[in-house]
Amino acid sequence: MLDKKTFTIGVLTLSAVLLLVANILAPHAAVANDTIKDRDYQMVTTRVSNPGGDALYITDNHTGLMAVFVYDPARRNLRLLGVKPITDAFPPARGAGGR
Questions:
Q1: How high is the pLDDT of residue 20?
Q2: pLDDT at position 95
Q3: Position 75 pLDDT exceeds 90
Q4: Cα–Cα distance between 16 and 92 in angstroms, integer?
Q5: What's the rounded Cα separation, in Å, for the pair 88 and 91?
Q6: Contact 46, 57 (CB under 8 A)
Q7: Which of 48, 94, 93 is nearest to 71 (CA)?
Q8: Euclidean distance between the first and final Cα of the chain, in Å?
Q9: Could you give the angle at the alpha carbon of 41 between the alpha carbons of 39 and 47, nearest 5°?
Q10: Mind listing the pLDDT tens digit for each residue in 25-59?
Q11: Do residues 31 and 47 make contact, with C-beta atoms less than 8 angstroms apart?
Q12: 63 and 86 in contact (C-beta within 8 Å)?
């Protein structure tokens, strides 16, 4: 016969095994904020508030251009937001050089 203690240990062991299997088989979500850098290109992913998806910034180190692609979760597609020179993000400071 099974006593109460053996039954409880069996139920807890079965629960632990089920939770372990569920954790291993659970799908892993994509994670933003990753960076990949090479000699020619740099890629950075990040979250954006408008339209509420993820963005991919690709920088070409040879030409100095940066392209921004945005994933729109509502439409489930990737669209090009724009391509601009990196220098446009860093305008010269006013009054620089004492002028």
A1: 93
A2: 66
A3: no
A4: 60
A5: 6
A6: yes
A7: 48
A8: 94
A9: 135
A10: 887 666 656 666 778 888 888 888 776 678 888 99
A11: no
A12: no
The answer to whether 56 and 34 are in contact (CB under 8 A) is: no
Helix runs in 1-99, H state only: 4-25
Token pair for residue 41?
């290109």
Structure tokens that stand for 98 in this block? 């004492």
Half-sphere exposure of 24 (CA within 13 A, CB side): 6
Give the tokens for residue 80.
């090009």
- Domain segments of the chain as ranges: 4-90
- The pair of three-digit structure tokens given for residue 5, joined into one six-digit string: 């203690």
Assigned token pair, 26: 């659970």
pLDDT grade for 73, boundaries at 50, 70 and 90: confident
Amino acid at 20: L
